[in-house]
Each structure stands twice: as structure tokens, then as C-alpha cells.
Amino acid sequence: MTGADFVLDGLPALSRSTVDRADALRDNAERLAKGWEEARLVVIDERGRARLAGDVLHLGWSGELGDAPVDGAVFLGEENEVAYWAVRGPGADDWQDLRMCGALLNDTDAGLMTAAVGLLAWHDLSNFCARCGAPTEAVRAGWARECTGCGREEYPRTDPAVICLVHDGDSHVLLARQPIWPAERYSVLAGFVEVGESLEACVVREVGEEVGVAVRDVRYLGSQPWPFPRSLMVGFAALADRDAPLAPAEGEIEHAKWVHRDEVRAAFEAGGAVPGLGLPGASSIAHRMLGAWANVRS
């Protein structure tokens, strides 16, 4: 394998999941009520954080809340005949969000927490109908909302964004940093897909807008949910000429630079940072993309 055709060496941290979402049960009130009797609860606070016991997601019991699903609870699915639900609850200083703990969790916990954070955040922002403005109420065990005025159904929204590792086909990758990031933190380029735009076209546009570079040979790598509050990061790789001038977008990109593979490897080996280069966190797809590219032996 060469640097031009590298692939992800595993699923991104927040793409992992084992629980069956069990769509067919969402309208089965009797079956949901029966499953609630011994259900496990993912408790998420208003900041999107959960309680961990070491690197394991702490799960509550449904019986602590009553004999039937409570208002605001959302059904996450079933595994081994155990039902999982998510609810809002008060947090504490030692609770963690997905940016902090996503890569530490096992496959089951990562999938549960990612779905819980995204679904509950959608409910928080969807209390009124987009058509007539009347209040909405949760239906289908939390997987839809129905307008009390016009009857319109609304479903959880996902905003697609592209994230692209731009490289020269040899030994350098193009990295950039936003002004609000910690000092010396760099990552690959990303941006939201616009209406009427394909994912590939978005890659070309966003890279051009952010650093002024034309890319080619755009190809898909993988994807990851990013519920902050409702994004789906769609990962790509693309080629660009390293001698093309860089023009960082004012106010959006503080600095951009080409980085040699050896420096990226050194940052990974040092735990995520070396002087002048800090890598994105392990819960992000950017981390997985850079690791896959850096580990190619040319």
C-alpha cells in the first residue's frame, strides 16, 4: 500500500456499536413496557456528559424511575434481551463527554452514548413544529416528534459534514488550525455540506475556501457520527500539489502547513503531540484518518 491509497485501519471511535436499534419495537407499547421492567438506563446531563466507572459507561436501572417509561426517555435498542433507554439527569464535575471518553469506551458503550447524546440533543431543540409553530410531542419511543397542531411528524436531524485528509501522494499531509483551538493543535480540513451539493463537491469547495488549494482524486474513507449536536462526519482523502500557495481563510483558519509523515508519526508515538504539532483527539475520525495515513510505509 502506498500513501496514495491508504485506508482506515479500523472503525472511528464513535462509529462502533453492538446494540440492535430495534426499529420494529418503537411502536409496540406493550413490548416496550415489558422491556422497561429490567431496562438499563444511559443518563446524560444537559452538557452531553455521562458518568463513567473507569472506562465503562455507568448504567442505571429503570426501576429507579418507575414501572413504565418516563416522559423524556428515549429507546436505544436491545441486546441479549436487555432493553436500553436514555434519559436526562443531573451531572457532576467528574462526568465526561464523548470528546473525552469516546475512544476509551468499548463498542457497546460507545454506540449507546453516541446515540443517547444525539437523540436527546435533538429533542431539546425540537419542541415546536417547523411548519405551524405548535408544540410537538415525542412519539415512537423518542424516535419522532408529532405536532399537536397540524399533525406533522419530524425525525431526528443529521447534518452531513465532510472531513478530508489532503496529501501530496508521497510524504506530506496538509494540516490547519482554527484560532479557537489549543495552541499548536492542528487537524485535517472539514466543513458542512450545502444544499444541493454532493459530498465530493463539498470537499473541493471547502478545501479551496479554507486554504486556497485545489484538490483532485477525491475518495471516500469512512464516516462517524459527531453529536455536537447532530453532525455526521464523512471522511475523504484527496491529492493536492505541495508547491501550491496556501491562503488560509481569514477568521476561520489561523495557520496551515504541510507536515512530513515522520513528524506525524512522532506526535502519535509521543502520545498525541510534539513541539509545534498537536494532533486531534482520539475520539475524532480525524485522529483515525491521520493514524492510517501516518502508518503507511513507503
Explained architecture:
This protein has helices spanning 29-36, 98-101, 107-124, 199-211, 261-269, 285-294; strands spanning 40-44, 52-53, 56-57, 59-61, 74-79, 82-88, 136-139, 144-147, 153-154, 159-167, 172-177, 189-192, 216-226, 231-239, 255-260, 273-274, 277-278. It is α+β, with helices and mostly antiparallel strands. The protein folds into 2 domains: 15-125, Alpha-Beta Complex (Nucleoside Triphosphate Pyrophosphohydrolase), CATH 3.90.79; 158-294, Nucleoside Triphosphate Pyrophosphohydrolase (Alpha-Beta Complex), CATH 3.90.79.10. The strands form 5 sheets. Strands 10, 11, 12, 13, 14 and 15 form a 6-stranded mixed beta sheet that branches. Its cofactor is Mg(2+); Zn(2+).
Task: Give a quick precis of the structure.
21% of the residues lie in helices and 28% in strands.
Largest sheet: 6 strands, mixed
The CATH topology name of the largest domain reads Nucleoside Triphosphate Pyrophosphohydrolase
State the name of the first-level CATH class of the largest domain: Alpha Beta
CATH architecture of the largest domain: Alpha-Beta Complex
EC number: 3.6.1.22
Domain Nudix hydrolase: 156-281
Family: Belongs to the Nudix hydrolase family. NudC subfamily.
GO molecular function: hydrolase activity
Which helices and strands, and how do they pair?
Elements: H1 29-36, E1 40-44, E2 52-53, E3 56-57, E4 59-61, E5 74-79, E6 82-88, H2 98-101, H3 107-124, E7 136-139, E8 144-147, E9 153-154, E10 159-167, E11 172-177, E12 189-192, H4 199-211, E13 216-226, E14 231-239, E15 255-260, H5 261-269, E16 273-274, E17 277-278, H6 285-294
Parallel strand pairs: 1-6, 10-14
Antiparallel strand pairs: 1-4, 2-3, 5-6, 7-8, 8-9, 10-11, 10-12, 11-15, 13-14, 16-17
Helix pairs in contact: 5-6
